[in-house]
Design brief:
The protein is of the alpha+beta class and about 400 residues long. The chain has twelve helices and 17 strands. α10 crosses α11. It is globular and about 55 Å long. Bound molecules: 2-oxoglutaric acid. 2-oxoglutaric acid binds next to β11.
Length: about 400
Amino acid sequence: MSMMKQKKTVQKKTLKARHTLSSGTNSHNERLKQDRPSIVFPALTSTKPKRRLHSTRNSSSSLHLLQEAVLTKCSSGSQEEDELAGSFNPGWMDKIHHCPVYHPSMDEFDDPFVYLQKIAPEASKYGICKVVSPLISSIPAGVVLMKEKKGFKFTTQVQPLRLAKWDNDDKISFHFRGRNYTLRNFESMANQEAARKYCVSGCLPSAYLEREFWNQMEKGKRGTVEYAINVDGSAFSRSSGDPLSGSKWNLKELPRLHWCTLRLLENAIPGVTDPMLYIGMLFSMFAWHVEDHYLYSINYHHCGAPKTWYGVPSNAALQFENVVQHCVYDRLLSVDGEDGAFNVLAEKTTMFPPKILLQHGVPVYKAVQMPGEFVITFPRAYHAGFSHGMLLFVHGRTYRDV
Ligand SMILES: O=C(O)CCC(=O)C(=O)O
């Protein structure tokens, strides 16, 4: 397709998308429409990060949500694959096994690097793992933020809760800012939204929400959710009396520990040498991606509803990129070969159900992260996921090699 025609198609789709979002009847969309400071719908191909050198900050958090028809067309037709490829069929979710969960003793927990080195040979085979902290914070995260970050406010991003109606030669992404919130305002908005959907704001069983999330993604039309990502700060307290914050697992301190290579960086890099806060609501999501420069990531859940993660081990990264290249995007990517998939994934905008991976024999595991738990992602392990409700979460990237 010529550049001109492509541009026109994107514009046409953009207008359609704008119409869909702004004409939504649901009250959340209406409120966003009124308060939204700016709306940008960049074309998918507008910003291509350099291979393995894209910046955390600049990675768009908008999502390319993929049409089910495109997603399922690679099914080779065996009975099992047909079942996995069927219209909404929760059966595939049970086929994704949980990643390992570690319960270190106080002694083992003393040094995160020694501990991670110990579990890495086994845990890295799953791409992700959970570490349940034997220490808890004595000061709740909300209290830390209120006290240590006076007037704390953050801006969300709006994510469409649906798969896009793409055709084979067109693709767009939605990327626009949500509102500015205090923690309390965000929580009340998030709880109202959850109650609007399920009559109560309390958390429902994880398996139910996993089914609901993918069901809504596949069947949804106008719904949106908000997610505050890459917010400067951390909810680890400065008080030395707090057992977890006083430990080496405090993500503010971890990159400065003696054998973390990141301590050698002269300048602070948000999200790398300093952790970042993520504040989510029911079905806030993060797209499939690997960490910048293939770093490890370490993520602590401070409070709120659980979060589901999916992870793919690094030895299947090429296989994963191949599936993205040939089955998810089909012929849509402008750059061929492994770079095409890598580049588009680096934009952190590609979200598709893990059943596509199952259909193509790509190993994928899941974790349901609760407050008080760390999730580790290993170098070059693709991961994606969603929140089960309002939650407060800290993410940090850490050293390259264990
Ligand atoms: O929870 C999120 O939104 C993102 C976590 C993560 O995988 C990341 O920041 O790399």
